[in-house]
Amino acid sequence: MSDLGHVLVLAGGVSFEREVSLSSGRRVSDALTHLGVEVELVDIDAYLLPRLTSDPPAAVFLAVHGVEGEDGALRDALDVAGVPYVGATGSAARLAFDKAIAKAVVARAGVRTPPSVALQHAAFRDLGGAVLLERVVGRLGLPLVVKPARGGSALGVSVVREAADLPQAMVNCYSYDSVALLERHVSGTELAVSVIDTGDGPVALPAVEIAPVTGTFDYAARYTAGMTEYHAPARLDNELATAAAEMAVTAHRALGLRDLSRTDLIVTAGGTIEYLETNVSPGMTATSLLPLAAAAAGIDLGTLCRDLLQRAVTRGVSTPGAPA
Amino acid sequence: MEMSGGSRLDPYVDRYAARTHGMTTSEIRALFAVANRPEIISMGGGSPNVSALPLEALGEMTAKLIAERGAQALQYMGGQGDSRLRELICGVMALEGIDASPDDVVVTVGSQQALDVVSRIFLDPGDVVIAEAPSYVGALGTFTQYQADVVHVAMDDAGLVPSALRDAIARIGREGRRAKFLYTVPNYHNPAGITLVESRRDEILEICAEAGLLVLEDNPYGLLGFDGPPLPALRSRVSEGVIYLGSFSKIFASGVRVGWVLAPPGVKEKLVMASEATTLCPVALSQYVVAEFLAHHPWQEQVKVFRELYRARRDACLDALAASFPAGSSWTHPTGGFYIWVTLPEGVDAKAMLPRAIQGRVAYVPGVGFYADGQGRRNLRLAYSLPEPDRIREGVRRLAGVLAEELEIAATFGTTSSGAAHE
DSSP letter at A226? Predict the structure, then answer.
């Protein structure tokens, strides 16, 4: 048995990534159970806070993706409830979850990221949708990636190659979020670099290279086994592998994250690396990237989650609203 | 785990049959996983209102059944299904004017399995199935898995349009392709909420007979009409050329998974063999439960309870639509069944709008799923069967708010979309 005490894995909620989150939660919970940790998988609903009060766990592992898990609110609620948890504080999660803000913060730390604009629907409405889109295309060029500023799993994301397809891509995107990020499309090798910190500072795990069979790493390619080929470690020379690892650690630090994160990058044919985004609650499903990276490094997923929980217990409760 | 050679995380990926190639997870599945949460008013799934059943009495009935006849009810049985239940099923079909022999009935695990076995014995890859536009998504999924091509035929407010059916048959013939059957839901159509008028029924049957086309009549809602007695089934007019699918999912309980096929004798033999290869036999316990319910409970009174309950929900939904939906939208006025088919104003894509709707705590099924050819972008299906009338009113009100926002976005970007309503 573990001496960690009783812990909860939170998963589910009402976000669009509910199903993915439940799958992540089950995987983490099973891995912890296997190590003898007393663990319970709990959904996010109106019963959660009373439950945390009446039977406080030693710590919580957040396997919650999408708005609920990553916009900071749940983390703030855990601070208020006095429960330690694994991962970023609410304020740091908020920074990272908004891709437009995260790009700006990480760029300030000297990291390359594709040029982009983040626009509310109101801007298009007030300035004229067609005219503004034309200017954006003129400035950023085509193809463009249109994505909800806040969201995950590629939901609402379109790669737009023809200007004529842009209006529908905008409509699809705004159905998910009120802010759209229009980013110059960079082609190259997609990488996911997970970062963990079990007490000795943030360390990058081996980069995972993502090669979707259809060429697009969309929702289906992410969660249908067989639709994407993964290489862990990525097929990079040492210099690029080191640069990618450094970039992920820089992003983790610049955003003020704790414990774990996953940064998505693109390596261009010319050998430059571009930053796309960082996830504060990385997927833990059977087709997720952080577990692949951990396995490539010879790290057992359950042991990693247990160590991170132990770290959360030792750290104790965060001050509500603490800066990143 | 070193994977420098690359891994697709599924060691069997190169071994799957060609028919599995479309079997991927999708955004829409992710969205529906949220739609079932209690915070959301879901008018998505066509679930029957089983809480209106006399659950306590059914519990006693089932306990007694197992105590007294468990040795049979918990055992294998013949692949065609329990003979007593098949007799009782003939009594149910008699209400729709069908004169049938229990020998020609095959009990299935819901009528979804009936669709599967009928498809299995008739469809080769590349065969054509003719279906209404739109058509039941579960049937389209089955036809697709058998690698058939679905050709849609228009409906209007009176149901399938005979001239459009003639045209489709001629066109398929000219293309050198072979249509095997017409799949039709003549009563209280899923998803369109439309009923094929009496005056077209013989004509549709004649067109199919002339073309040598079987009719697959799917009639789960036939007894759930709100106005007057049940309409005579297509199968009641002819004894050949129609394969009839029935179900207890909507008139009793979907969870028992009991449906049936009434087929001409030769077809029936093959259906039994195909069905045995899938399930050995339909679920014995469920068949006994249904048979007991039909034999010893006032089940037709129960159907009346359901009819009134669904009528009140339909009325709530229609009233709310009329009160809150914007100009440019339209919807069908079902006289029975579970569904209203909504056509949104030009430029609004119902599938693209679904995430916004779910964030607005209301859910529906986007229209594109009910077509095999990409139509239906402006359409959505509302199922009024499950929520209470007040929740339906609130759900439609929320949806109208979502639609107003979506219209504003569509106006900003000047999007247009193709895809017709039920014509």
Answer: T
